[in-house]
Amino acid sequence: MRLDDAAGFVFDVDGTLVHRAGREVHVVAGAAAVLERISDSGRPYVIFTNGSHMTPEAFAHGLREVGLPVADDQLLTPLLSAIHYLRRRHPGALVRLFAAPEVERYVEAAGVELASAARAREADVVYVAHVDDVHLDELEDAARAVRAGAALLTSSYVSAYSGANGPILSRGAMVTAAIAKASEARPKIVGKPSKAAVEVIGERLGLPTSQIAVIGDDLTMDIGLGHLGGSRTVLVRSGISGQIDLERVPAGRRPDAVIGEVGELLPLL
Q1: Quick one: average pLDDT of 66-78?
Q2: I need a labelling partner for 210 at 20 to 30 A (CA). Which of 145, 199, 203, 250 fits?
């Protein structure tokens, strides 16, 4: 498969462009050259990480610090697709948010009304981003709000994502699972893969998603995102899905192409 006719691109971060080991970030060989080649061709690209523990601007800054050419407006996260979803599906909703303080401020600045702890059970929506610490009382209040009719949204519901030293377990998924179990509700994903994420990508690139290519290491999140948008998909074996036997995967869930590392895209662009 060649990608010289793709009109735009979406890249995953962890396991695709970088590997993280604690606070250290290692850029995958060829990652910067691939982004520069696309930029030189005049085609747009965005980076979509499913991380929701920082603001998009903070993610972009961190990637620039390790040498990747990523502008603030090229960095997408579930926070943006969640805000997009809330505006369209739950305008004016009172939202109980599980997130870091800086993320709470970011979401609130976007016009979302956040529920205080005292009003948690009155929430119209419970949204789980990433949180490092949570009390059982907070989980119970959220579960009771969902039992009373609140929607349950989550940035991601996968168990882990790729790290340099093995899978990094998702605390957001842990919190979401606890609320879902207690409330007997099925969470709605607003990060990767979701229609909200597809819509945000299309708007940011200014292109139909059928004309773009999605490159990532996670068969469920990245390749699934591409399939939702009718995009071409490339699985890189450098991350979480590196050992999956694709022959055992249903044909409709397989990527269009498979490469070892992102640098192998260079001759295809």
Answers
A1: 97
A2: 250
